[in-house]
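Narrative of accomplishments. A recurring question from our advisory board has been how the design workflow behaves on a single, concrete structure rather than in aggregate. To address it, we present the structure tokens for one chain from the evaluation set, followed by the sequence designed for it. No filtering or post-editing was applied between the two.
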């Protein structure tokens, strides 16, 4: 199926807290605490590797937090390439209770210099020759040029490398105009990109078409517990997630993007790959904290995922 390279430009130490309940103006008790390497690309590589795919995670790494990130990653099951930066990487906090309520608190991340951006770009360019996919995942730290992801997409297209764009902020629009293979915003990210509220099913379908018209070959809008909608230029697809007991939805979008690319790399068509993606996101949301479903858990949920052509 070929190597899948992920880029996490703004990684983090993820601190995950499980509490008895999330309520206003009253105390909650911490039941469990766990720390791990965080960032959308790192999460995607974790899922791809656990599904049996071949992946390489490229990420920045700096400061005391960066040393802890390196320890977490080197103890993992997939290869990594770390690009050294001066400033300490961020720490993100997720708080989830036993009823499925969750709060995600992210730091913006440290400023990155022009020289550091250039080192990251060189690392990516050197690693994506003869690979299948490049996944550009997560936010860009302060100081990142707005055309950074766009430049990488242009370069990947020259090499016939497929690209997935899963990010937010000022870098999004230029990157979409560069023509990624697929862009995967969630509900809120799609609203920010288009500067409009998306409420009804018709709104989401129109949003997917508008984003594709901006330059992306394929568009997937993840809708959490509702599943996802997508277009590959030949009609729309709605993928409905089954009803499940959600424990923590944080990270489900990362699992969706990773499973979509994994399935596509194995030869699945757009609709079937999106079915795998929704299954992975749903199965992961059923796990406590920020956790990711195995292939077996995903396969079980996939049997209950409904696909509709629109």
């Amino acid at each position: 199926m070929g190597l899948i390279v992920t880029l996490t430009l703004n990684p983090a130490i993820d601190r995950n807290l499980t509490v008895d309940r999330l309520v206003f103006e009253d105390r909650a008790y911490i039941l469990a605490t766990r720390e791990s390497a965080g960032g959308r690309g790192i999460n995607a590589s974790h899922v791809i590797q656990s599904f049996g795919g071949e992946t390489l995670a490229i990420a920045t790494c700096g400061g005391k937090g960066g040393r802890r990130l390196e320890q977490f990653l080197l103890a993992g099951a997939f290869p990594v390439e770390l690009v050294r930066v001066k400033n300490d990487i961020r720490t993100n906090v997720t708080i989830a209770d036993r009823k499925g309520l969750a709060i995600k608190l992210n730091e913006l991340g440290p400023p990155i210099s022009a020289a550091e951006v250039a080192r990251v770009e060189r690392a990516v360019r050197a690693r994506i020759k003869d690979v299948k996919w490049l996944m550009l995942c997560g936010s860009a730290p302060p100081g990142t040029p707005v055309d950074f992801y766009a430049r990488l997409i242009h370069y990947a297209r020259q090499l016939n490398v497929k690209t997935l764009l899963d990010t937010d902020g000022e870098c999004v629009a230029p990157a979409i105009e560069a023509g990624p293979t697929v862009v995967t915003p969630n509900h809120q990210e799609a609203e920010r990109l288009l500067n409009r509220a998306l409420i009804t099913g018709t709104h989401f379908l129109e949003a997917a078409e508008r984003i594709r018209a901006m330059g992306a070959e394929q568009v997937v809008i993840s809708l959490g517990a509702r599943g996802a909608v997508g277009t590959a230029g030949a009609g729309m697809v709605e993928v409905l997630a089954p009803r499940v007991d959600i424990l923590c939805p944080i990270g489900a979008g990362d699992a969706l993007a990773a499973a979509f690319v994994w399935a596509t790399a194995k030869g699945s068509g757009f609709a079937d790959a999106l079915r795998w993606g929704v299954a992975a996101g749903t199965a992961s949301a059923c796990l406590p904290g920020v956790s990711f479903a195995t292939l077996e858990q995903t396969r079980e949920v996939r049997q209950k995922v409904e696909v509709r052509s629109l």
